[in-house]
Amino acid sequence: MLKTKDLGYWYDNPKNSLFENVNLEFEAGQSYAIVGQSGSGKTTFLSLIAGLDKPKSGSIEFEGKDIGQIGLTNYRKKDVSIIFQSYNLFTYMSPLNNLLTAMAITESSHTGDKAFAADMLRKLGLTDEQMKQNVQQLSGGQQQRVAIARTMVCDARLVVADEPTGNLDEDNTAEVIELFQQIAHEQHKCVVIVTHESTVANACDNAYRLEKHEFSVI
Ligand SMILES: Nc1ncnc2c1ncn2[C@@H]1O[C@H](COP(=O)(O)OP(=O)(O)OP(=O)(O)O)[C@@H](O)[C@H]1O
Q1: What are phi and psi of 166, to 5 degrees?
Q2: Ramachandran angles phi, psi of 184, nearest 5°
Q3: Where's the ABC transporter domain (predicted)?
Q4: Which of 72, 102, 116, 128 is the most buried (most CB within 10 A)?
Q5: What CATH number does the domain containing 31 carry?
């Protein structure tokens, strides 16, 4: 589904590249963890495959097409869902309206289908009352489940997550990992997760380590 071709990136000086000549493949129906020391460039890599920034060298192909050709704005809207450690929900809205808004913005095939959105939130453990409250009244684990539900009601087939369990306790982490596995295996999407946590990396179908400017399979 997604391929990096001789991908390279640096911030200020080409001599200080974070990584170069990276050739990795990510398939639909699979989950991938990316681990590595702090500052090694994991988030940078994720932002490149999410179309938030442009490669300094090489390219990224999504379903056989250079994402630059798809157009990064179009790619981010249609093909990618992003989940952050800090949830990034519309804080002035209810969970239900967060989902309905995301569906409308991304022109999801389920746009306007309130019952579908409510059903997804119910499946992820929210009560009918909670889904209509302001999201800020929910716990961290519940807010992250809303962010994940948002991904599940949108059509984007690449799901990227940056430290999605960073603010969660053990139980919520286990539940969130299980949801990512469902997204990969049941929705047949490709899930790429940057994580510090070995439990998350071990639970994913595949894991890469970014170390000394290179990716290796672990
Ligand atoms: N906008 C920026 N401008 C300049 N340097 C940056 C910028 N963003 C990140 N960096 C630097 O690039 C390197 C890689 O950062 P990145 O956030 O990708 O690493 P990371 O592996 O995700 O780290 P962490 O695990 O701590 O989140 C770091 O040394 C960081 O200071």
Answers
A1: -55, -30
A2: -70, -50
A3: 2-218
A4: 102
A5: 3.40.50.300
> Which single residue is written with the structure tokens 């409510």?
118
Structural domain count, the chain: 1
CB 147 within 8 A of CB 163: no
DSSP sequence for 147-190: HHHHHHHS--SEEEEESTTTT--HHHHHHHHHHHHHHHHTS--E
pTM of the predicted model as reported, rounded to 2 decimal places:
0.94
Q: Where are the alpha helices (DSSP H) in 19-159?
A: 42-49, 67-70, 72-78, 95-105, 114-123, 140-153
Ligand 1 contacts CB of residue 138 (under 6 A): no
| Ligand 1 atom nearest to CA at 45 | 18
| Segments forming the whole domain that contains residue 43 | 2-217
- Parallel/antiparallel/unpaired status of strands 25-26 and 2-9: antiparallel
Q: Render pLDDT for 139-187 as a digit per residue (tens, 0 to 9).
A: 999 999 999 999 999 999 999 999 999 988 999 899 999 999 999 999 9
Residue in the block written with tokens 């949108």: 154
